[in-house]
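In the design runs reported in the main text, the only information available to the sequence generator was the tokenized backbone. The following block is the verbatim input for one such run; it is reproduced so that readers can re-run the procedure and compare outputs position by position.
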């Protein structure tokens, strides 16, 4: 086995046959962390985004934090309930794309797909960058190396997902459940100390006064509405990732739709509980944040000292309040679990993006290489594409969460809104033909749910665009437009190729009238003799051997040797005053072509088969150039005649040893010879 193949097997594991696809399907306990880690992890920064935005208006705005959190939670519950209808109606895994395409039209489906693909890339970039920023609190040496660290993390996530959905899900399950346990345990322990033990818990920033920025000193009227809308749109980041389950239904164990719907319900319940619990505890303990980068708000201590440096995150302050003085391991557990889950949040995108990419490739909107599974039954090309795109964003924006977050959320709410409208049309279409009273009641109830979802997500989309567009959301919109145009161009190309290559019963079964065979001879040796023998075996109408005279003396010797062998095939010598082989030979072949479209010129080119990459550099370069040029000439066929050198024998043995058919499953599924 080659070194490269050995390294690949170590990184991604042994190959899996197509018949083993069932082994990679997910039970609900693994599906939850695989598909919901993004939505769950957003609980770690959604409260921060709400409070940070409100801090621009100073102390008077913090009273709205719990109201905004309730609004976000309500939207999440509505969206989760709506998507439960989607996974039952469309279990094939197309999710929003399939819903929009079937019920509204291909252009609507492509709009949704563009939005989701962009948002998946942003999910990876934002989550990993946020995780790096949180890690800096524990590892200060990471400061100044955020881009490199984020790139390494994305690469590791890519490698883990290349091993397959089942294996990556098992690895990610423990940190995801640890995060859920840590946050819920922290909130419940804080409530216990406040309401049962009667302790007055206060955050480190509780006694600080937050001074508003100059633009929000008069917090009322339109200005208040605008800031509350911006805070709500920032908090709506908690909804990202909800749609991934509807895209990943095929990865669930049977019954797929029911298990996916159950996982969605678990996600909604857990995420809402964590979000509201953290906001309520933050209000009870007086957690305050400032974001000096956004607008210049700052702290003032009771002694009158001005502080512009940012404080710990909401999770950091709450973990300190709840555990630091009473149960120190709890503090480190919560902080560590939060840091890890932010890294792993990208795993949702690594499972949603490749599946959606495969469906789009099946429909000819993306390169067809994205449709096929790799040797671990994961969509390897999609996983690699997502990783490279996310790394590009991280490098372009210097791993800055502040810049990346402004582009976030837009895409997911575009898909939410279009999908819910599509589901309403889905139920309307089925109600026109359904006569069973029970089924009609179920459909009408589902239509009402999706109607509420369409209304709410549409309102949120308008709020997000209005409040974030000039702050960076326009970049996400531009990316969606570019991707939309690109996918339409790919589809047009594939459609054009299909029309050009369609079988014509009147023409394409007619045999060529004449075949002119040409053997390129550079030297009189065994490869040339083999090419000549192959050409004779094809019984062409005419047969000619051709050499290009780049060296007069060498060409004369070649002709003498050829004539001495009495091969009964004339050797034509093409003059080349500028010592060029490719051009004169191409001109010779071009002259052989006649005006008859049924005549064929078949060129036989001897080539060396070598066993080392450096040997390839020493041979076959002229043959490669000639073959490439001839491929663009109509009615010309090129046949490469291989001659195996001794060094290629070792290469053949290595391929034989790497043959997957030489392996089979032993007892317990273990591979053996």
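Verbatim output:
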């Amino acid at each position: 086995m080659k070194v490269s193949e050995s390294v690949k097997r170590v990184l991604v594991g042994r190959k899996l046959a197509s018949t083993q696809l069932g082994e990679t399907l997910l039970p609900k306990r693994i599906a939850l962390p695989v598909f919901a880690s993004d939505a769950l992890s957003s609980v770690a920064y959604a409260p921060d985004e709400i409070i940070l935005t409100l801090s621009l208006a100073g102390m008077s705005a913090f009273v709205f934090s719990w109201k905004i959190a309730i609004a976000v939670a309500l939207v999440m519950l509505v969206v989760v309930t709506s998507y439960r209808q989607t996974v039952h109606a469309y279990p094939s895994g197309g999710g929003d794309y399939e819903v929009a395409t079937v019920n509204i039209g291909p252009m609507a489906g492509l709009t949704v797909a563009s939005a989701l693909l962009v948002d998946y890339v942003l999910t990876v970039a934002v989550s990993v960058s946020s995780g790096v920023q949180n890690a800096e609190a524990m590892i200060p040496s990471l400061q100044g190396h955020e881009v490199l660290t984020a790139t390494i993390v994305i690469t590791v996530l890519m490698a883990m997902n290349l091993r397959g959905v089942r294996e990556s899900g098992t690895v990610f399950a423990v940190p995801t459940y640890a995060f859920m346990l840590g946050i819920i345990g922290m909130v419940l322990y804080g409530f216990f100390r406040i309401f049962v033990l009667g302790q007055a818990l206060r955050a480190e920033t509780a006694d600080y006064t937050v001074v508003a920025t100059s633009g929000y000193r008069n917090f009322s009227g339109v200005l208040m509405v605008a800031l509350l809308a911006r805070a709500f749109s920032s908090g709506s980041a908690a909804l990202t990732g909800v749609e991934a389950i509807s895209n990943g239904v095929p990865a669930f164990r049977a019954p797929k739709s029911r298990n996916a719907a159950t996982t969605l319900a678990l996600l909604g319940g857990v995420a809402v509980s964590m979000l509201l619990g953290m906001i309520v505890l933050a209000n009870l303990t007086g957690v305050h944040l400032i974001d000096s980068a956004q607008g210049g708000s700052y702290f003032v201590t009771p002694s009158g000292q001005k502080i512009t440096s940012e404080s710990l995150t909401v999770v950091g302050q709450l973990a300190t309040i709840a555990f630091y003085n009473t149960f120190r391991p709890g503090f480190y557990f919560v902080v560590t679990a939060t840091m890890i889950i932010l890294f792993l949040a990208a795993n949702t995108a690594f499972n949603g993006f490749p599946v959606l990419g495969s469906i789009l490739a099946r429909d000819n909107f993306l390169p067809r290489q994205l449709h096929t599974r790799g040797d671990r039954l994961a969509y390897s090309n999609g996983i690699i594409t997502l990783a490279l795109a996310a790394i590009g964003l991280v490098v372009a924006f210097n791993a800055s969460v502040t810049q990346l977050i402004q582009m976030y959320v837009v895409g997911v709410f575009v898909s939410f809104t279009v999908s819910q409208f599509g589901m309403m049309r889905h139920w309307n279409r089925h109600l026109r033909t359904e006569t069973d009273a029970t089924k009609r009641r179920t459909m009408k109830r589902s239509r009402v749910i999706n109607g509420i979802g369409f209304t709410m997500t549409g309102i949120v989309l308008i709020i997000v665009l209005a409040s974030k567009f000039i702050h960076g959301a326009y970049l996400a919109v531009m990316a969606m437009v570019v991707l939309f145009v690109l996918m339409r161009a790919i589809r047009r190309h594939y459609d054009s190729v299909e029309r050009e290559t369609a079988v014509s019963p009147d023409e394409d079964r007619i045999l060529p009238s004449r075949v002119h065979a040409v053997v390129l001879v550079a030297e009189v040796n065994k490869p040339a003799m083999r090419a000549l023998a192959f050409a004779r075996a094809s019984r062409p109408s005419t047969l000619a051997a051709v050499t290009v005279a780049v060296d007069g003396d060498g060409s004369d010797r070649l002709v003498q040797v050829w004539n001495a062998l009495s091969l009964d095939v004339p050797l034509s010598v093409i003059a080349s005053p500028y010592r060029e082989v490719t051009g004169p030979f191409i001109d010779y072949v071009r002259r052989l072509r006649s005006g008859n479209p049924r005549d064929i010129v078949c060129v036989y080119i001897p080539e060396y088969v070598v066993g080392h990459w450096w040997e390839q550099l020493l041979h076959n370069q002229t043959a490669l150039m000639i073959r490439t040029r001839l491929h663009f000439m109509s009615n010309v066929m090129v046949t490469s005649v291989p001659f195996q050198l001794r060094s290629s024998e070792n290469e053949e043995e290595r391929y034989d040893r790497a043959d997957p058919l030489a392996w089979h499953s032993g007892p317990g599924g273990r591979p053996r010879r």
